[in-house]
Amino acid sequence: MARDRVTTLPAGDIATRNAAGQALVEAARDNPDIWVLTADVMHSTGTKPFAQAYPDRFINVGIAEQTMVGVAAGLATCGKTPFAATFAFAASMRACEQVRSDVAYPNLNVKIYATHSGLALAKGGTTHHATEDIGIMRAIANVTVLVPADARESAKAVKAAAETFGPMYIRLRRGADPVVYGEDFDYQIGRANELRAGSDVTLIGCGRTVAECVLAANLLDDEGIEARVLDMHTVKPLDVDAIQRAVEETELVVTVEDHNILTGLGGAVAEVMAEMATSVRLKRLGLPDIYAGIGPEEGLLKQHGLTSAGIAATVSSMLA
Amino acid sequence: MESLTDREIERLVGLACEIRQRITDVFAVAGGGHFGGSMSVVEILTTLYGSILRVDPERPDWPNRDRLILSKGHAAGALCPVLGCFGFFDEGLLDTFNQLGSPFGMHPDMNKIPGCDMSTGSLGHGLATGAGMALAGRADGKDYRVYVILGDGECHEGSVWEAAMVASHYGLENLIAVVDRNRLSLDGQIEEVMSLEPFADRWRSFGWHVVEVDGHDPRSIHEGVQHAHRTEAQPTVLIADTVKGKGVCFMESKTEFHYANLSDEQLVEARSELRRNS
């Protein structure tokens, strides 16, 4: 859980993709219906351990994301629980129509296992960023959208997805991200985790930005501002009750995401708040309908005001 | 499986005539429909359901059933009457086609139509989903087969060829594609819009066993499927030579009947011709 008075969180000793990949292996141990497919990115997505452990339930279709999702849909009609693993940009855009028409519309039990999301492939540039995927997947009926914050939560998300029926988009990352969670914590699809209590402002993050929200809360504490931090690990279905409480109990809501503020976490929260007839202000931090540019991820996050310092500065100025 | 007797052929020919009349009835209720591609695929469907597929209308979700994916989903106007005819649901329900709340529409929905194994409509999807079903069957030690019916125009879609690669790479002998080769797409002659030839060679070069059949002759289709059943370690495609709009003279090989709503006079003429030939 959130640590007091720290300004950095330790980097995990395991890459998020490897934690998620290991969770797949563990889930498959108890469930013979779990399959994994990939589109020539077995190594990159951390699914190689699964391929080695369960070669009969592993399919590599080559660089053919549309077909990967289609094959997964076919497997699901026969009672399998396929995880289709590739980079988030390709999973959400190249294979988007297969996700909609072959998986979501027939409501098949396929899990889109989308790694390297957000700005995780920062130096890869815009083609390899996925800053639209939450919005795209959120707009598709029947699809649950999971955005875990760190390696441990990625593992929990994968296991929960394996145990819960329905089409899902699991927005995973890549390397050893800052650690948000300790060994033991609750995880329920659709229920935000409150990482820190606070009554002045509510910071809502998902994925990589949750760690920045936790650190921003510590910085704000030094200024006498009490920030509540929510890990909105499920962007759809959104935890409306948690937002309702934020609106009732704090003066400002700030969403933080490594995604376009249109349609993403901020968009989702804005939709809900708009129907709450509240005067509580909302600020959406993220990419303001622009592409992030090229550089190391930390540099891009900083440039777009998505690190703890940027978040804290925004909150201070709005509450001043 | 043995070859069809003359009597069985006669039954299938009669069935095809009956289905063409029902397609006309359905599209009259529906306010129009994809006549061209529905009429061209009739014998492919009736021969498969009438002499090949191991299915049980009482148990449409039977795990060991053969699967059929109508990848050219716009021919739902043919598939639905065939499923009704084989007892998957009350044929009277077809009178609701395209109406508010109906299970039946321009493209088939697997969750609403008993016997429909995959929701389709957007082209280029069925071969991949079929490959998934074939992979599952093999992994589960089941001996069912998966049949995927494609349009020839549909083969413009790159995703068809991605899936073709996957099917041959994994040696899916339990996957059988049937291409309704009616040579017309929406905008005209396929060879002029975007050429597919050398079509059979293209499939061969993707690792498929190719059988060319007469798509309006149940015996030829049936024999082609027997070839497919004897093929090991690779998928088979039947390239079924057909006529778009088959069975109604004024529709045959006419792109304008890809989708049409017949006038009263055309409806009378079509019904009269189909009855005459039944």
What is the overall shape of chain A?
globular
What's the tally of helices of chain A?
12
Strand tally of chain A: 12
* CATH fold annotation of the largest domain in chain A: Rossmann fold
Q: Largest beta sheet of chain B, briefly? A: 5 strands, parallel
Keywords:
heterodimer, A: 320 residues, alpha/beta, Rossmann fold, 2 domains, seven-stranded mixed beta sheet, five-stranded mixed beta sheet, 12 helices, 12 strands, B: 278 residues, two-stranded antiparallel ribbon, 7 strands, globular
Topology:
The complex is a heterodimer of chains A (320) and B (278).
Chain A: H1 16-30, E1 34-38, H2 48-53, E2 58-60, H3 65-77, E3 81-87, H4 88-94, H5 96-104, E4 111-115, H6 133-138, E5 144-146, H7 151-163, E6 168-171, E7 193-196, E8 201-205, H8 209-222, E9 227-231, E10 234-236, H9 240-249, E11 252-260, H10 265-274, E12 281-287, H11 297-303, H12 308-319
Parallel strand pairs in A: 1-2, 1-3, 3-4, 4-6, 5-6, 8-9, 8-11, 11-12
Antiparallel strand pairs in A: 5-10, 7-9
Helix pairs in contact in A: 1-7, 3-5, 8-12
Chain B: H1 6-30, H2 35-40, H3 42-52, E1 67-70, H4 76-85, H5 126-139, E2 146-151, H6 158-169, E3 175-181, E4 184-185, E5 188-189, H7 190-193, H8 199-205, E6 209-214, H9 218-230, E7 236-241, H10 264-276
Walk me through what this model shows:
The complex is a heterodimer of chains A (320) and B (278). With 320 residues, chain A is α/β, with parallel strands linked by helices. Chain A folds into 2 domains: 16-171, 3-Layer(aba) Sandwich (Rossmann fold), CATH 3.40.50.970; 193-319, Rossmann fold. Helix content of chain A is 38%, strand content 19%. Chain A contains 12 helices and 12 strands. Chain A has helices at residues 16-30, 48-53, 65-77, 88-94, 96-104, 133-138, 151-163, 209-222, 240-249, 265-274, 297-303, 308-319, and strands at residues 34-38, 58-60, 81-87, 111-115, 144-146, 168-171, 193-196, 201-205, 227-231, 234-236, 252-260, 281-287. Chain A has a 7-stranded mixed β-sheet, with helices on both faces. Chain A has a 5-stranded mixed β-sheet with strand order 7-9-8-11-12, sandwiched between helices. In chain A, α10 links the parallel β11 (252-260) and β12. The longest helix of chain A has 15 residues, at 16-30. Chain A is globular and about 60 Å long. With 278 residues, chain B is an alpha/beta fold. Chain B has a single domain, classed as Thiamin diphosphate (ThDP)-binding fold, Pyr/PP domains (Rossmann fold, 3-Layer(aba) Sandwich), CATH 3.40.50. Helix content of chain B is 41%, strand content 12%. Chain B is built from 10 helices and 7 strands. Chain B has a 5-stranded parallel β-sheet, with helices on both faces. In chain B, α1 (6-30) packs across α4, α1 (6-30) runs antiparallel to α10 and α3 (42-52) packs across α9. The two termini of chain B are 28 Å apart. Classes of the chains: A alpha/beta (320), B alpha/beta (278).
